[in-house]
Amino acid sequence: MKTTKKYGKKVDAALSLWVKLARASATCWKLADENIRSFGLTEPQFGVLECLGHLGPLTLGELSKKQLVSGGNITCVIDNLERDGLVERVASKEDRRAVVAQLTPKGKKRFDDIFVEHAQFITKIASVLTEHEQEELSKLLRKLGLSLGEQLS
């Protein structure tokens, strides 16, 4: 169902896309957040564990960019994960000025224990679409995201 039919075909199509994208995104994020909270983590904490679990040790600046959060926010997230024994800070071997965050053995085990379960949950959410539809939607969203990212630069 179209939300509008009064601004012209091109504008109406763009507005309809925007509403559907916003609603689908909000619903997916809400469901994913509920799943992440069931592990006793916040979304930013899970995001850091996921980054470190997949990419290995990263500087706080790199984590901040990957997570799209401020340096102050990432510091707070790392503080909490460090308090829980999941992450540790170490001096960078390449740059003495930089601090690197890495998973502790406990953090690695936690990541391994919960990520597969979370991935299965996301697979269930996406299963309303066929694998082909998921691939096509991924391509289209990537195209949109890259184009919008260029506009921010």
Characteristics:
3 strands, Arc Repressor Mutant, subunit A, three-stranded antiparallel beta sheet, single chain, globular, 8% strand
Describe it for me?
The protein is mainly α and 153 residues long. It folds into 2 domains: 1-38, no CATH class; 41-152, Orthogonal Bundle (Arc Repressor Mutant, subunit A), CATH 1.10.10.10. It has helices at residues 9-37, 43-55, 60-67, 71-83, 105-126, 131-152; strands at 58-59, 87-91, 99-103. Strand 2 (87-91) and strand 3 (99-103) form a beta hairpin. Helix 1 (9-37) crosses helix 5 (105-126) and helix 3 crosses helix 4. The protein is globular, with a radius of gyration of 19 Å.
Shape: globular
| Second rung of CATH, namely the architecture of the largest domain | Orthogonal Bundle
* CA-CA gap between termini: 35 Å
| Mean pLDDT reading | 90
Going by CATH, the homologous superfamily of the largest domain would be Winged helix-like DNA-binding domain superfamily/Winged helix DNA-binding domain
The counted number of beta strands is: 3
The helical percent reads 55-70%
Rg, alpha carbons: 19 Å
Low-confidence stretches: none
Strand content: 5-15%
Biggest sheet record: 3 strands, antiparallel
Secondary-structure blueprint of this entry?
Blueprint: H1 9-37, H2 43-55, E1 58-59, H3 60-67, H4 71-83, E2 87-91, E3 99-103, H5 105-126, H6 131-152
Antiparallel strand pairs: 1-3, 2-3
Helix pairs in contact: 1-5, 3-4
